[in-house]
Amino acid sequence: MSEKISGIAASAGIAIAKAFVFQNPELTIERKSITDSASEIERFDSALSVSKEELSVIKEKANKELGEDKAAIFAAHLLVLSDPELVDAVKQKIENEKVNAEAAMDDVSSMFINMFESMDNEYMKERAADIRDVSKRVLAHLLNVTFTTPASISEEVVILAEDLTPSDTAQLNRNFVKGFATDIGGRTSHSAIMSRSMEIPAVVGTKTITEKVENGVMVIIDGLDGHVIVNPSEDEIATYEEKQKQYQKQKEEWAKLVNEKTFSSDSVQVELAANIGTPADVKGVLENGAEGVGLYRTEFLYMGRDQLPTEDEQFNAYREVLEKMEGKPVVIRTLDIGGDKELPYLNLPKELNPFLGFRAIRLCLEEQDIFRTQLRALLRASRYGNLKIMFPMIATLGEFREAKGILTEEKEKLVAEGIEVSDSIEVGIMVEIPSTAVMADTFAKEVDFFSIGTNDLIQYTMAADRMNEQVSYLYQPYNPAILRLVKMVIDAAHKEGKWAGMCGEMAGDPIAIPILLGLGLDEFSMSATSVLPARSQILSLSKEKISSHIDQILQMETMEDVVKFAEENF
Ligand SMILES: C=C(OP(=O)(O)O)C(=O)O
Ligand SMILES: [Mg+2]
Questions:
Q1: Which segments does the entry list as coiled coil (predicted)?
Q2: From residue 493, how far is each of 14, 48, 110, 445, 522 by CA, in Å?
């Protein structure tokens, strides 16, 4: 009998293959007293050096296959293994407490893991995951336990795992690994993001997949609808092979649109852009036919390291993106740190409500050195392409004026230094705070463009934390309250002859797309792999017809009414 297990669709596609249940190595640590601490330290050193060699190989492989930015995580892992705070602490423990290396390593790494995990902050939790990942490798070597890595897989499988660490995902060989499913994680967890950029079908957050499935059992991963079918019947296999074929055909159809512009059936043109986090993501942007970059989240340049990036480092990253985009529009957002994205090296005080606290533009206007360095890097890069600068989390016109004033000052300084700066940089804002949406008519007189950040706009409008599962029912993109705000922003922009885009997840959502088209959105920025499906959808939509229903939609009482109407009519 087959069994259907549901999870979250993390990466589109269908995979049918035998299960490879990826288990963590059995690392049972026995605490032993030792007498010869020198030879124990030697044993620890040699486990460290083998681990470092392995990680260097993985890093090189990731570098080649995934790009320098994704490989950076392994540079961070290598740093952990060279970090005197960890290494010396283990050695001191061996020396002073006369315990074996395994026990010392386990104690010290657990101490760091607990410390970082208790910080209740996603960034620090990831650092804890890094230490866990790295110390497992060292412990396996100390215990002489084989450390299975996905790199050893040499037949077609789908991987089932509790979760996949960054080093696991980077080693996946697409020729053999057809898909994967995990017990934990959500659409934005690390493994889910990696699966999309590698285009491997994936379902995450199944809760029980590794418990329920044994190695070698046939499994179907349905990354389109978020299901895993265990032990499928012949009929089910045939059905999913058909679904796989249809999806493949659909992808081929979409691929034909890669060099096309985006028009509705009644010839209204919109722009489909992609969101990126690093310069390496530009490859996917171009391959998926995006017409620009609608959001470059620069904070990743600042994360996963222990000090601020220099002006030159930033300049190189921005220039690379602008050059690779060859004159297509590139919206680069200034540092949006804070909330769930922390920079430990800034030593900012802990806050009770980080999402309502000292973040993004608020921090940049206060810590002006950081802001000015970034603006200078952006201005210097501006001559290499079509740069638009965007400020995040703008709540008041005063903030925008101050940020723009600083930008103008830096520009004047550079020009005085004889450095060439583009004269046609548009300067716009994210609309992600309700006050700004409500005041959009006023802002529109001064900004060059708006980009609606629905990820935050929804959380602030509905007062529902975007990361909190328990209140996720309130996270309602189609709630008429949100749609009315979106309309206010678009109308305000148009009244002043400006353009309005959207770079929150909603812009790539097939249910939202018709409504946004009808509301007159000019630019839709989404994950690169959503661009072609969105273009194909828009081709068949009549803007005029949808616009004639907009008043009716905005008068609806609930989100459910909106969804029902959209599904039935568009
Ligand atoms: C695009 C957005 O920004 P981020 O997801 O980076 O907060 C948003 O808030 O919608
Ligand atoms: Mg935001």
A1: 233-260
A2: 42, 58, 53, 8, 10
* Contacts for 263 with CB less than 8 Å, ≥ 6 apart: 269, 270, 538, 539
Distance from C-alpha of 364 to C-alpha of 349, rounded to nearest angstrom: 15
User: Which atom of ligand 1 is least distant from the CA of 455?
Assistant: 10
CA of 511 to the centre of ligand 1 (A): 19
Dihedrals φ, ψ of 519, to 5°? -75, -15
Based on the domain organization, do 320 and 211 belong to the same domain? no
Confidence class for position 185, pLDDT limits 50, 70, 90: confident
pLDDT in tens, 252-291: 999 999 999 999 999 999 999 999 988 988 998 999 999 9
* Range of the structural domain that residue 236 is part of: 3-23+149-248
Ligand 2 centroid from CA 422, angstroms: 27
Whether 333 has a binding-site annotation, put simply, is yes
Provide the total of helices (H) and of strands (E) in the chain, helices listed first.
24, 17
pLDDT at 166 over 80: no
Please give the positions annotated as active site.
Answer: 190, 503
Q: Are 297 and 277 spatial neighbours (Cβ–Cβ below 8 Å)? A: yes
466 marked among binding-site residues: yes
Q: Are residues 292 and 438 in the same domain?
A: yes
pLDDT at 477: 93
Please indicate, yes or no, whether residues 431 and 362 belong to a single structural domain of this protein: yes
